[in-house]
Amino acid sequence: MMLWEKKLSYLDLLGLREYSQHTERLATIKEYKKDFKKGLILDVGCGKNYDFLKRFFGKKYFGLDLAPYKKKNFINHNINSKKLPFKNNSVPNVICTDVLEHVDNPHLLLKELFRISSGTIIVSLPNNWPTFYLDLIIGREIKKKVGYGLFKEPQPKGLRHQFFFNFEHACNFLEYNCSKKFYIKQIRYIFEHTNDGMLSSLPLLNKIYNFLGKIDLNIIRLRSPVFLNNFFCSRVIYYFCKLILVIIKAPNIFVTTLFYGFGIKRFYNLFCRQVWFVYHFRKL
User: Fold this and answer.
1) Which pLDDT score, from 0 to 100, does residue 197 have?
2) Is residue 223 in some structural domain?
3) What does the buried/exposed string (b/e) look like for 122-143 if buried means 16 or more CB atoms within 10 Å of the residue's CB?
4) What is the dihedral angle through the alpha carbons of 51, 56, 61, 66, rounded to the nearest 10 degrees?
């Protein structure tokens, strides 16, 4: 049995699972600040996350991507056709979130991450199946999928997904291709409120699930009228929203578990939205 299989939990079937936050990948990356080694943090395929993470990590953060940016600490580089412009084991921290599915050769890029790193590597991959779960049942595309499909006009570089895979494929890929110089410190399975089961995948309902699930105090303060924008009222609104979410989640968990609870890999393939692997360099 592989390490990722040992991390599967039947508690996730009962709704005790980790969900993406309001800022999704950015919020998750921020949680790893304490795990980073001293020195440079390289974000491979940073995209639009550059500005946000540059402000958060400061001078030690560098973004690398194929983009017409002329910004400090940004490296313009085509990761599809060239090796990463760093020497072996020269970068203490490497981030590569939801990037490998966009490149021509994900195996080669992952090897490059291991080659240049001397400390921590954080990689995430999306599970594509939950996005299409309801479409396949109904038999038509309910909502256009960004990065997927065949469109009349070419999509922008970096947006188009080159590979379509499920949860199990992502886990096997990330564990099997771990360099011998590294070990897997942590594996996380993150669910998305909009694709969290049979009922939450339904149109309109998924918007309600997503809104209630991702709402936080900052959003409430920004959107509330002035007379409600205080310490007490904002928290009352917040906990009320979370209570409603718990109430409407109960039937979703029951129906989903009834149909998929006896096949845990089947459940994860259909509903787990993201896989995160954290690798650490082995001390010699």
Assistant:
1) 87
2) no
3) bbbbbbbbbbbbbeeeeeeeee
4) -20
Residue 26 falls within a domain, yes or no?
A: yes
* CB distance 70 to 127 below 8 Å: no
In tens, the pLDDT along 156-208 reads: 766 788 889 999 999 999 999 999 999 999 999 999 988 888 888 888 888 89
Which class for 231: exposed (0-12), middle (13-18), buried (19 or more C-beta within 10 A)? exposed
Which residue type, as a one-letter code, is found at position 193?
H
Give dist(CA 35, CA 156) in Å, integer: 34
**Alpha carbon distances (Å) from 88 to 117, 153, 202, 234:** 7, 40, 48, 50
CB proximity list for 41: less than 8 A, separation 6 or greater: 57, 60, 61, 62, 92, 93, 94, 95
Q: Give the number of other CB atoms < 10 A from CB of residue 175.
A: 16
Query: Could you give the CA distance from residue 244 to residue 209 in angstroms, rounded to a whole number?
Result: 10
How many structural domains compose the chain? 1
Range of the domain at 272: 3-201+265-281
CATH number at residue 134: 3.40.50.150
Dist CA 37 CA 251 (whole Å): 44
Q: How far apart are CA 254 and CA 207, in angstroms?
A: 20
Enter the pTM of the model.
0.91
**Do residues 77 and 62 lie in contact, with contact meaning Cβ atoms separated by under 8 Å?**
no
Q: What letter represents residue 26's amino acid? A: L
Pairing state between β 182-191 and 272-281: antiparallel
Q: Which two tokens stand for residue 152?
A: 């009349």
Query: What is the rounded CA–CA span in Å between residue 50 and residue 32?
Result: 16
CB atoms within 10 A of CB 65: 22
| Distance from C-alpha of 143 to C-alpha of 128, rounded to nearest angstrom | 14
